[in-house]
Structure formats: C-alpha cells, structure tokens
Design a protein that fits this description.
The chain is of the alpha/beta class. It has 19 helices and 16 strands. The protein has four domains: 11-144, Response regulator (Rossmann fold, 3-Layer(aba) Sandwich), CATH 3.40.50; 158-320, Rossmann fold, CATH 3.40.50.300; 324-393, Helicase, Ruva Protein, domain 3; 411-470, Orthogonal Bundle (Arc Repressor Mutant, subunit A). It binds adenosine-5'-triphosphate and magnesium ion.
C-alpha cells in the first residue's frame, strides 16, 4: 500500500459573511492546492453542504443569519457513502467560549480573528493529514469487509471471492446448496456461515454425518421414529429434520448416503414433509438443507451409486471450494491467522514466519488443505523456540528431503524443456494469484528473467495465455 505520498487536496467549504475576508481565505487555500467553495451566509453554507461532497468546513462562528455552531452540527448529518466533513471554526476576539462549545460539538480546531494566514495554512495542513488518514482507514476497512465477507472464512483470491459472491446471493433464500471440495477445504465452515449469516440464524443448525451411521440408524436419525418402529424403539423420538425446523440441516458426506435413504430424502425435499419411521402420518417441516461431499457425485450417478434426481435436487446451487494449492496466494494470510490463534492458545511468543519457512509452506501440495495447514502451523508454534518460526520447525512431511527427486519430476523426463518451463511458470503464477515477485522467488529466478519469459511464452500476468480467447 503506497499511499504515503502528499495528501490529495481537500474539498473545502468556507462560510464567512464578510465577503472580502472570505475571499482572502479562499485564495490562500486555493494556493495550497484545495478546491474551495465560498458561502457568504449560513443558509448558503448549509445548502452547499447538502449539495456537494465536502471534506472540511471553515466557518465563522458568528454569522448574521445563523450561529456557526449550527453549521458544525450540520456537518454531522450522515450522508450516504460520504465521510462526515471536519470543521474548523473562526472566532472573533473575546468569543473563546463559543470556540470551546464548537470543539465540544466536534470541531477539529478553532482560529482567532484577526486571522494569521501562516497559522491558517498550518491548521489546514494538520487537518489534511488527519482527513487523509481517515480516508485511508475507511478504504482499508471497505477492502477488509469485502474480502472477509464471512467471519472466520479467509480468502482474498478470486477463487474464494467467487465463493463469497455466490454465498451472498443465496443467503436470503431457502435454496438447497451442495458444497463440494476436497477434504479440509472448509465445506462445513461454509455451511455454518450460510446459516449464521442468513435469516434462519435464530433457529437451529443441525449437522448430520451421513457416512458415520448404518442405514437403519441414519433413517431414524433423519426422520425420527415411533415406539415399536423397530426392535429397541422403546420411546418416540424426533429426527434431525424436526430438530432443524425453521433452521438448517447440514447433511455432511451426502455421497455416502445409502440409496434407499436417498429416496426418502428426495421425497422429503420435494414435499416439505417427513414421516417418522413406523408412522403413517406426514409432518410438515420448514428446513433448509445444505449438503456437502468430497466425492464426485456425477461419477457416482453414472455408476448408479447416487440418484440422479436427488443430485439435481440438491445442487440447485453448487459451491465448489477450491483446493488450497489452487489459491496459494491466500496461504500467507491463513498462516498469519492460525499463527495468532495457536500462539495465543499455547501461550507461545511465536509471531513471525521467516521467509524461508514461508517458501517451504508455499511449495508443498497440501493434500489436506486448510485443515492440514492449520495443524502444521499449530505444530510449528509448539516447536518454535523464539518469536520467529524458522524452517526447522516445519513438520518433516511438509519439508522436501534433500536430494530427493520428486515423482512429478521423474515423469517429466524426455519432454521439450520449453513446454515444461512454460507450464511451470503458468501454474506457479496462477497459484500465487499473478504475484510476479513471489513467483520468481519460488522459481528461484530474478523478476527480470521472469518478465522476459512471460513475454517469450506470451503469458498474461496471471499465468494464462495472453490470447483473450484462452482466458476465463
Ligand atoms: N477459508 C478458511 N478460512 C479459515 N479457516 C478455514 C478455511 N477453510 C477451512 N478452514 C479451517 O479448516 C478446518 C477444516 O474445515 P472444514 O471442517 O470446514 O472442512 P471440510 O471441507 O468440511 O473437510 P472434510 O471434507 O474433511 O470434512 C477447520 O478448522 C476450518 O475452520
Ligand atoms: Mg467436513
């Protein structure tokens, strides 16, 4: 972030009913590079404040038609999408009391008449720095709000922003959602976020792992049962559907649900009614279903292991979570987050990750995705000796063994070197979200060399082919 340069000029409104005096102030401020509007009455001042964006108001305290304090107060009226203008008041001799009141009402400074133009310039410069800082904070906050649109879920890469976009679009609906993605990519996290950020949050979020239960038990867990429905059913029991009434039912590992249960689930989803095992009486339920699986349901449908109609019914909306290796640009941020969490939990001072350590983490494939990263960071925190996490704290399975030829390199033997290099640069650039500096670090070449190769191979910044037809 390089916004340290000279602060941009301000939009200033001068309210002064002595026109000559007002013009002097205006000229001085314009010479300082600001955009200045002059109002020669309180009423005009208020009108201008409402009509155009203003960063700073310089107002006389004693106006003919209005108390300057009213102008200060009017600055605090919230205007959609605009920051509250700051105010500086100008007071005549012997009205310090008014200045004190103005400061209490939120004015930034007061200046005494007769105006010392040097002091005026200095005061405005101080206000300018403050306004610039506030503006920067606001922009940063907007960027943060946008990138972490769901509490606890981190992801600034396009891949994750796309996920957040879809989540935002479906938050207020009852649409059934199917969340896909490899193990540890955050499927359950997303399901919970959809519930707790949506209109059903006051009601229950009920998870059920379909892989953990035998067929009969799963049926009665889902739909409940009546007394005597099966051997051992000595009491009536409500199922998870009923427990989730008004809320969300999270069906985890839906790909592992037996075919017969799939048929019952489909019926429940289509009719909005369930029937307890051993009963003939349907019950109305109002449940949003979010399902998750790490399996490829299309293949399962082709192989006859998953009902096609249920598959369609579940994926009214499909959210496919990217693997961590496909969004490596998020890794440093996730590391930082998990580091803070783990060092606090274990009371360890570890706070800094050495560059070489980060390089190792960036080079690993992370088959267990974010969960594996979280565990690795925790273990690194526990094994670190000081504030800095050095490479020796990295778990051995993450660290490449010296002298090893990775299997993947063995399979490249005999391929044209240019093709391999092109693919290497393309993939690495994509993984780091187009960050060329990071890419060159990982590849061990200078950024200049990288730029040259990007040009030679006709790649765009993100590692895609520069040919527009080839980009997504
Ligand atoms: N984007 C993310 N930001 C922060 N933490 C994350 C993110 N994704 C996953 N995690 C963390 O990683 C761990 C695994 O997430 P979760 O249980 O949601 O994964 P999953 O996809 O359901 O995995 P599995 O298929 O193995 O059940 C959790 O501790 C979760 O908090
Ligand atoms: Mg899970």
């Amino acid at each position: 972030m390089t916004r340290q340069a000279a602060s941009p000029g301000l939009r200033i409104l001068v309210v002064e009913d002595d026109a000559t005096h007002g013009e002097v102030i205006r000229d001085v401020l314009e010479q300082e590079g600001h955009e200045v509007a002059l109002a020669t009455s309180g009423r005009d001042g208020v009108a201008l404040l409402d009509a155009q964006p203003v960063d700073l108001v310089v107002t006389d305290l004693r106006l003919q038609d209005m108390d300057g304090l009213e102008i200060v107060g009017h600055c605090r009226v919230l205007r959609e999408g605009q920051a509250v203008p700051q105010a500086i008041v100008v007071t005549g001799y012997g009205t310090v009391e008014g200045a004190v009141n103005a400061m209490r009402d939120g004015a930034l400074h007061y200046l005494q008449k007769p105006l010392d133009l040097g002091i005026l310039r200095e005061t405005i410069r101080a206000a300018q720095s403050r306004i610039a800082l506030e503006r920067q904070n606001r922009e940063l906050q907007t960027a943060i709000d946008k990138s972490y649109s769901f509490p606890g879920i981190f992801g600034q890469t396009h891949a994750m922003q796309r996920v957040f976009d879809v989540m935002n679009q479906i938050l207020d609906t009852d649409a059934t959602v199917l969340v896909g993605g490899e193990s540890g990519t955050g499927k359950e996290l997303v399901a919970r976020a959809l519930h707790y950020a949506g209109p059903r949050r006051a009601k229950a979020f009920i998870p059920l792992n379909c892989a953990a239960l035998a067929e009969g038990v799963l049926e009665s867990e889902l739909f409940g049962h009546e007394v005597g429905a099966f051997t051992g059913a000595t009491a009536q029991r409500k199922g998870r559907f009923e427990a989730a009434d008004g809320g969300t039912l999270f069906l985890d590992e839906i790909g592992d649900m037996p075919l017969s249960t799939q048929a019952h689930l489909l019926r429940a989803l289509e009719s909005g009614e369930i029937t307890r095992v051993g009963s003939n009486e349907p019950l109305q339920v109002d449940v949003r279903v979010v399902a998750a699986t790490h399996r490829d349901l299309d293949t399962m449908v082709r192989e006859g292991r998953f009902r096609e109609d249920l598959c369609f019914r579940l994926r009214v909306v499909q959210l496919e979570l990217p693997a961590l290796r496909e969004r490596l640009a998020d890794l440093p941020h996730l590391v930082e987050h998990f580091l803070a969490e783990a060092s606090e939990r274990h009371g360890k001072p570890a706070r800094i990750v050495a560059t070489e350590t980060l390089d190792i983490l960036m080079s690993y494939r992370w088959p267990g995705n974010v969960r594996e990263l979280k565990n690795a960071v925790e273990s690194m925190v526990l094994l670190s000796r000081g504030e800095t996490i050095t490479p020796d704290a990295v778990p051995p399975y993450v660290r490449p063994a010296a002298g090893d030829t990775p299997d993947i390199l063995k399979s490249l033997s005999g391929l044209p070197a240019d093709d391999v290099e092109r693919a290497l640069i393309t993939n690495t650039l994509r993984d780091v979200g187009g960050n060329r500096e990071r890419c060159s670090q990982l590849l061990g070449i200078s950024t200049r060399t990288l730029y040259r190769k990007i040009k030679v191979y006709g790649l765009s910044g993100h590692g895609q082919s520069a040919d527009p037809a080839g980009s997504d």
